[in-house]
Amino acid sequence: MMSIDELLNKLRKIIITYELLRSPGGRTIALPSGKGGVGKTLVTLHLSAALSLQGFSVAALDFNFALPNLQFYAKELPSTTITHYLCGLCDLDDIEYVKVKVGYSYIHVYPSKSIVDLERKIDLEKLPNLLKNVKTRYDYIVLDLSPGISKYSMYPIMLADCVFVVTADEKASYLDATKLSKILEVNGIYIKGYIVNKVEKKVRVNLDKVVCKIPFDQKIRNFPEVWSKKILKPNFLKCFVELAELVVQVC
Ligand SMILES: Nc1ncnc2c1ncn2[C@@H]1O[C@H](COP(=O)(O)OP(=O)(O)OP(=O)(O)O)[C@@H](O)[C@H]1O
Ligand SMILES: [Mg+2]
Prior knowledge:
With 251 residues, the protein is an alpha/beta fold. It has 9 helices and 8 strands.
């Protein structure tokens, strides 16, 4: 049987989460995937850029705690990051961000130092507080997650306002994406749709609820440079502008 302490602890957690979900402020967008390497990190950044260029304040958070990647695109890893906070190595107010220029606008990128390098375990129970805090400061918060189904991806998904599953345009990735969305559905989370990435010429995958098809294009890797006015806008940027418009409508 559960002790009073355990019960109180559980209740406290439920209340924090409930408060978080009810709290006004920014909308949190989670972009999970079944398979790894399908483009979550790139979608996180380009979607954040597109939302920012529509006039919203946007934060991109690295929630891939073991294998984080946002620092490569931000070109900087601050000394106090999200994982430092989650490992108890700094306070919430000490978490630093990198200001990344996209076109005539900016996004705030919050990298994470890998927990492998920190040699620490993270306390996921600190996530509601972190999200509650950033929600007061931004219109949109985009979460770059780890792939697959683990507590590290599922917990942030449960706390998010809006979920899109990312898949590459190939069968194995699509099968895992549909499995993931079924698992989410069983847990009461209904995805807003699938983002199909790395589409070459003709879409191979036939899915319901596809909200966005992003072409395979080497230029997409040149984040944030491709959003510069000087560079001729490639076709794929249109996908992100449309995705951002959809996010504003449905999230
Ligand atoms: N549309 C695209 N066209 C060309 N290359 C792409 C595209 N999308 C992603 N890539 C490339 O594919 C690789 C994986 O992308 P990314 O890191 O965004 O995937 P991920 O889902 O975040 O991976 P992980 O699961 O490891 O976090 C990167 O090298 C990236 O540059
Ligand atoms: Mg990634």
